[in-house]
Amino acid sequence: MKKETRLILALDVLSEEGALDLVTALEGRVDYVKIGYPLILAAGLGIVRKVSKIAPVIADLKVADIPNTNTLISQQVLAAGAVGLIAHAFVGKDSLKACAEAAKEKGALVFAVTEMSHPGAEEFMAPLAFKLAQTAVDAGADGVVAPATRPERIRLVRSAIGDRIIISPGVGAQGGSARSALDAGADCLIVGRSITNSEDPVKATDKILEQIS
Ligand code: BMP
Fold first, then answer.
1. Which end of the chain, N or C, is less surrounded by CB atoms within 10 Å?
2. Can you say how many angstroms the Cα of residue 170 is from the centroid of all Cα atoms in its chain?
3. Pocket lining: 174 vs ligand 1, CB cutoff 6 Å
4. Is the dihedral of CA 16, 18, 23, 25 positive or negative?
5. Cα-to-centroid distance, 117 and ligand 1 (Å)
6. Helix count (H) and strand count (E) of the chain?
7. Cα 169–208–89 angle (5° rounding)?
8. Does ligand 1 have an atom closer than 6 angstroms to the CB of 191?
9. CA-to-CA distance for 135 and 115, rounded, in angstroms?
10. What is the pLDDT along the chain (213 residues), one digit of tens a residue?
């Protein structure tokens, strides 16, 4: 995993042109670009290949199905050019393992969701977060997604996964602090709207980079 700037851009915009302009402007300032349903549904899966020519892509489809379907979904996004993918752990070790194996075949990374960053994650995910993180390890995931909005939960997840990677969303727009998430043990931060909705995305990115340097 590349960890030069420690930033992953969440590219939740709806126009292909806007997406490519943003990624071009931010080239070198982010290690990866995370592309999920909003942009893929708006612009088509081909956007993964187009962005990949500028920056490596993590496909965030939060894959959560039976093992066979998980394999098929993972193979599609990897064939489209993604070098990493995000899958849910709550569906169980076999399903997550299917994603990990598909990724391994392509030399790609798999991140398992433990506890999400929004308030609703406290209803069902939080009580299971430690176990979900252990499942991520057992299934052969390279890392996990853990919430910058609750740094103490990053510490908990870290205690379950050893030196595997933690990528952490929730900085800025959701109220989380970049510095606190890294201090709690996150390896990289996932940042979307603080950058993509800014009038000056380069300046906004540099501000975050300053906070974490
Ligand atoms: P933003 O910085 O605009 O809040 O974006 C965060 C990104 O991370 C979004 O793409 C969101 O779907 C994703 N995400 C999250 O916010 N919390 C999680 O727990 C898991 C995520 O993938």
1. C
2. 11
3. yes
4. positive
5. 7
6. 11, 8
7. 15
8. yes
9. 13
10. 999 999 999 999 999 999 999 999 999 999 999 999 999 999 999 999 999 999 999 999 999 999 999 999 999 999 999 999 999 999 999 999 999 999 999 999 999 999 999 999 999 999 999 999 999 999 999 999 999 999 999 999 999 999 999 999 999 999 999 999 999 999 999 999 999 999 999 999 999 999 998
Both tokens of 163, joined, read: 């030196």
Which helix (H) or strand (E) element contains residue 99?
helix 93-106
pTM above 0.85, yes or no: yes
**What's the CA-to-centroid distance between 170 and ligand 1, angstroms?**
6
Helix (H) or strand (E) holding 112: strand 109-113
> Which of 57, 58, 117, when mutated, tests ligand 1's pocket best, judged by the most ligand atoms within 8 Å of its CB?
117
* Residue whose CA lies nearest to ligand 1 atom number 5: 192
Q: Is the CB of 10 under 6 A from ligand 1?
A: yes
Alpha-carbon distance 139 to 183, whole Å? 27
147 lines ligand 1 (CB under 6 A): yes
Angle between helix 67-79 and 93-106 (nearest 10): 30
Q: Can you tell me the distance from the alpha carbon of 147 to that of 168, in angstroms, rounded to the nearest whole number? A: 5
Catalytic (active-site) positions: 62
Nearest C-alpha to atom 13 of ligand 1 is from which residue? 169
